[in-house]
Write a structure and sequence with these properties.
It is a single chain. The chain is mainly α and 151 residues long. It folds into 2 domains: 68 residues, no CATH class; 72 residues, D-amino Acid Aminotransferase, Chain A, domain 1. Helix 1 crosses helix 2 and helix 2 packs across helix 4. The chain is elongated, with a radius of gyration of 20 Å. It starts with 5 loop residues before the first helix and ends with a strand.
Length: 151
Amino acid sequence: MSFPNVDDLLDRAGFDAEESVLTRRQAEVLALREQDIQQATIAEELGTSRANVSSIEASARQNIAKARETVAFADALSAPVQLTVEAGTDLYDVPNRVYSACDDAGVKVNRTAPELMKLVGDAAGDAVHGREVRRDITVTVTTDGTVQVRE
């Protein structure tokens, strides 16, 4: 397997260094990792250490997580449905609370109760354990019915 052209990968993905939360080097490493290229191989090609490539990749993934959280926060500010699910709530009670809040706001959610429970459980991470909500979480629903969960 030949080493891919990083510039081509970034161009195809639409990377713009002036608009991105990633540095060019972070974008390069992520683009290569998405091609299933090992960190050691990337390090050799870029003339650096595997530990440095690992650090660059970790920083890039943290930046992406922060960017996603920022977008979720911005979306939540304008979401017509904002529901706090308090610690101690049974996860099985969450769908009815979401549906009720959506009915009040005139927003349609295209998710079944089991889908909502899974989405909330997965998105809340360790704030939900089993059926128990352990820490307050916020569930928002946008006008197009997109459900987001934040701690």
